[in-house]
Design a protein that fits this description.
42 strands; Trefoil (Acidic Fibroblast Growth Factor, subunit A); about 30% strand; about 700 residues; globular; 6-stranded antiparallel sheet; alpha+beta
Length: about 700
């Protein structure tokens, strides 16, 4: 199935005639062909700042607009094309276009996103904020205000938001709109946009026709080939009021001061149930459902975690069954990926007992015995039948049925965009193909390709990557898939890969080896630790944005630390002049992170926890470690301007403890080596190439050679 692309491949050259920077006098001044510069201020004025929106072509998240406030190397500049916009008119609506990106700006997922074809028009209004210097507001589709809410070091707050109401967004969205030039290619751009919008509507109708055809195919596949049917099942209505009535939910140790049991079934995930934390009596706490209307053999549970809490989430749930309420037998142990963060939903999948049970107990193991939940649900599984060869894959069939129903809803709405419709078609076709492949014993070309991809992951080596038994088990899974590369082998290998990501036994640094230490944020921003000695003899530890590795360049030698492996399993990282790295614990640029005496550091594998973004997986953390001293983990913010410390390693867009420890490989790309080229430069220079008259401790270039001054 081909992918529809709603973009006419036409590059429009642009030209600008510059003239004075003038604030617009009225909304009528916002016309196609004019180039505008947007400056935001009311929210920022308290911090003595202003900011404009710009397109960061070489930075993270270049698919959206950002605030100049969060980038120290980007100044407000009306002559910078990345900060310039024009509007293109089509059928009476204006669309916002960035000059440097040559893309339109539209609302998507709460952000102002860069697109080849706009999905949102823009409309301007007078601001209700009442600030004379910032009298205007821009809104997508006339309702979702474009807002500039920057925060230095918190880059997820540094991009342009949208979706606020015209009144709620006034403080953050009020701006001054300056006219700074003319866009010479506006006629060509307008013609191209009109064509693409018309083509987009045609493609949407064609996509709906294609979806109708695929839905018919899926319907026949489910009924005629799979012969699938499902009867019964569904959510069981639990109650907490009457112990003598059916489906009674209770806890053996409820907390009396907060978190009542009825919070588990009230449909509200903002409140919670709590088992007894105030002098608990029982050593184990559980939830139990008594006197089920219909004894259950096949069922599932789901729960939502309590919001805004750091610990005491369920670690393990043991499922027990009984028919007399006294003697219980184990049915299952649920310990896979139970969430350890707030406001998350978890589903068990199918639980199948050896016989039907009328009483179900859910024994919860948590950090301090007691636990909490926001919601708890119990489901009876439907009685499902299918063609015998497909029965082992009924979970995928159920997924296909659910996707088919979603596709039907999409077809009936008939207002989705062509790309979204085609994505649904692709998912339906792929899932049908997968189910057919799972029931086949034939070799699968996709599996062969997948094995090659997985082997590349297996080849990754270095500090933080798996070793030991976990690596051996994963290699065995790869070998088994290679021996018989069926579709089922691909699914099995994918499951093995997920377990490999979680391997706790990892490669650790080796004694005497030189490493660089780079903090990596949730968004992929890299900042490396850099140690310098000043001309006055003071030493500083700072964070430096990594602009080197993407270009294949080496870090400077000031960012290199030699590892000392200690007998107790800890490590020490030594600077070039014999000092030790410790927890910075304060503002970057101070000596707080450097110790004159030996410091022992414990290295741990990074893992998802309550201080990570909510969708962080082991895969995203693969190969990253965290270090701690005295039980605390450093977590610098993404700009490297401040170090936070905590008892859990962070992994967020704003704070991160996730560190890439990479072996240092010296190269010929530093400024120092260039000084020591064929032409010897007489004199003493620091690492930045500045001439030094009286060198103190540190590395210098003296008469073209690198010298360590002690």
């Amino acid at each position: 199935m081909r992918k529809f692309t709603l973009f006419l491949s036409m590059f429009v050259a642009f030209a600008m005639t510059a003239f004075a920077q003038n604030p617009i006098a009225s909304l009528e001044d916002i016309k196609p062909g004019k180039i505008f510069w947007l400056q935001f201020g009311p929210w920022l004025e308290a911090n003595g700042a202003q900011a404009s929106l710009f397109w960061p072509s070489s930075e993270q998240y270049s698919d959206r607009l950002w605030s100049t406030y969060v980038f120290s190397n980007v100044e407000d500049n009306p002559e910078d094309p990345s900060q310039q916009f024009t509007v293109v008119e089509c059928e009476g609506k204006l669309y916002l276009f960035n000059i440097a990106a040559q893309k339109y700006v539209s609302a998507k997922d709460g952000s102002a996103m860069m697109m080849d074809i706009p999905t949102s028009y823009v409309e301007a209004f007078e601001s209700t904020y009442g600030h004379a210097s910032y009298p205007w507001i821009l809104a997508f589709d006339g309702t979702g205000t474009i807002t500039n809410i920057p925060a230095n070091g918190f880059e997820e707050y540094g991009y342009a938001y949208c979706g606020w109401s015209l009144t709620d967004g006034a403080a953050y969205g009020s701006c001054q709109i300056y006219e700074v030039g003319e866009y010479a290619a506006i006629d060509s751009l307008t013609e191209t946009l009109a064509y693409n919008l018309v083509v987009g509507e045609q493609l949407r109708k064609e996509a709906l026709d294609s979806l109708s055809y695929v839905l018919e195919e899926v319907d026949l596949f489910i009924l005629d080939e799979l012969k699938y049917s499902a009867t019964g099942g569904g959510k069981i209505e639990l109650q907490v009021a009457d112990q003598a009535a059916a489906n009674y939910l209770w806890c053996n140790e409820p907390e009396l001061s907060e978190g009542p049991i009825d919070a588990l079934i009230d449909g509200d995930t903002s409140n919670f149930f709590h088992s007894r934390w105030n002098s608990p009596v029982e050593k184990q706490h559980w939830l139990q459902v008594d006197a089920l209307n219909e004894p259950l053999q096949k069922f599932a549970i789901e729960y939502d975690t309590r919001p805004n809490c750091a610990d005491d989430y369920p670690d393990v749930i043991e499922v027990l069954g009984s028919n007399d309420g006294v003697e219980f037998s184990q049915i299952a142990v649920l310990d896979k990926d139970l969430p350890q963060q707030g406001s998350m939903h978890w589903a068990s999948g199918d639980i199948v007992a050896d016989q039907p049970y009328q009483y179900l107990r859910f024994l919860v193991t948590a950090e301090r015995t007691y636990f909490h939940m926001a919601e708890f649900s119990l489901y009876a599984l439907a009685n499902e039948t299918a063609e015998e060869k497909y029965l082992p894959f009924v979970t995928y069939i159920r997924e296909l049925v659910e996707l088919y129903n979603e596709g039907n809803d999409m077809y009936m709405r008939a207002d989705d965009k062509a790309d979204d419709i085609m994505e649904m078609i692709t998912e339906l076709n792929d899932l049908m193909k997968l189910i057919k492949g799972l029931a086949s014993d034939e070799d699968d070309p996709e599996t062969v390709e997948y094995i090659a991809e997985v082997k590349e992951i297996y080849e990754l080596q270095g500090v933080g990557y798996p070793t030991g038994a976990g690596r051996e088990t994963f290699k065995a899974a790869i070998d088994a898939a290679e021996a018989k590369p069926t579709t089922l082998a691909r699914i099995t290998l994918a499951e093995a890969l997920q377990e490999y990501y979680k391997t706790e036994e990892i490669i650790l640094p080796t004694n005497g080896t030189k490493y660089t230490l780079t903090f990596v944020t949730y968004g992929g921003v890299r900042n490396y630790l850099d140690y310098n000695v000043t001309e006055t003899g003071d030493y500083t530890l700072s964070m430096v944005r990594d602009t080197l590795t993407s270009k294949g360049l080496s870090y400077p030698e000031t960012a290199v630390f030699t590892c000392e492996a200690n007998e107790d399993g800890t490590f020490s990282f030594v600077t070039f002049d014999g000092k030790y790295l410790t927890v910075p614990n304060g503002a970057s640029g101070s000596a707080t992170g450097i110790s004159e005496s030996k410091v022992d550091v414990t290295l741990v594998k990074m893992y998802p926890n309550g201080k990570c973004e909510t969708d962080v997986t082991y895969e995203k953390l693969f190969g990253l470690v965290a270090y701690q001293v005295g039980g605390t983990f450093p977590a610098p913010n993404s700009s490297g301007s401040y170090f936070y410390t905590g008892n859990l390693p962070h992994f967020m867009g704003s704070w991160t403890s996730a560190m890439a420890i990479e072996e240092y490989v010296p190269g010929d790309d530093t400024g120092i080596d260039q000084v020591a080229g064929e032409t010897v430069v007489e004199g003493i220079y620091d690492l930045s190439g500045r001439r030094v008259e009286n060198p103190v401790k540190g590395i210098y270039v003296i008469n073209g050679k690198k010298v360590l001054v002690k």
